[in-house]
## 1
Amino acid sequence: QVQLVESGGGLVQAGGSLRLSCTASTVSLSTNAIGWYRQVPGKQRELVALISPGGSTNAKDSVKGRFTISRDNAKNTVYLHMSALKPEDTAVYYCNYDAHTPNLWNPSGFGSWGQGTQVTVAS
């Protein structure tokens, strides 16, 4: 079973920055569409940003201009660069992949998730 591993979360003050990493050992992140998601207790998991196999990116409106998704093919790693963090960005962040970019918009369609990484933004 393919497992993605998220890392890089932590506690940061509002206005600060973090870089999250998503790695995989048995799947190529360079030939798949990768999405970063977040979830807070009691709410559905939501797509935050995505990168297509061709490198096109998109992001949720509330994070545009603050979050950037990028990929390092040599390291088989996808990053989420987060800046100007706000308390409402506090969540557990996850990554997942699919061969088809549009499928990333439906997180309920994924059969498995990694452990995620906690991001806490203090006001």
Note: The mean pLDDT is 95.
## 2
Amino acid sequence: QVQLVESGGGLVQAGGSLRLSCTASVRTFSSYVMGWFRQAPGKEREFVAAITLAAITWSGGSTDYKDSVKGRFTIFRGNAKNTVYLQMNSLKPEDTAVYYCAARMSTMSQYEYWGQGTQVTVSS
């Protein structure tokens, strides 16, 4: 069973930065696509960013972002084993949400595994 553990959420003022981390208990980390989603109160969960780990070896990573976070958020694989990060800069109050890490095999279209979520609150 794949387990995802997130950390790094917290309270920050608008314009500030936070870095979220997600560590996966998998054997073949490079076989996965790792994503970040978020859910604000009263809203549906939405996609934020994803990285195709298999692509890292040849291109530095294949990434995708929600339009509203492009240029502010960066998803990347760090040196820590089986860990991806979401660096969030220039945070806005509308970024306030519970952020979830998710994983799927690169051959699957739906995310199969989810973390417990970490709260990010941006004050104005």
Note: The chain has a mean pLDDT of 92.
## 3
Amino acid sequence: QVQLVESGGGLVQAGGSLRLSCAASGRTFSSYAMGWFRQAPGKEREVVAAIMWSGGSTYYADSVKGRFTISRDHAKNTVYLQMNSLKPEDTAVYYCAAGRTYYVVRNDPDYWGQGTQVTVSS
């Protein structure tokens, strides 16, 4: 079992930055691929970014490439999502996810966090 707790969401103006954190506990964090998803009102949940357990490979949705960066700190059992140049369309609830493989975390994660709200004002 893996428990995931997100933090760092909030209200920011367009063009601003936020860093989301996801603290993991439970089973061996370092063996899981990690990801961030988001869900805007009236829309389906979508994958935003993912990172392999080793950190050697990352994935980004086209809508966030060049603006968002995913990273992980094994010593702190934490994964981060640095979000720069935020746009109003980035407004959503952001969820942290863990998966036993890189493919699983991007498509059907094994574990989810409770979500954190990000609101970008224009």
Note: The mean pLDDT is 94.
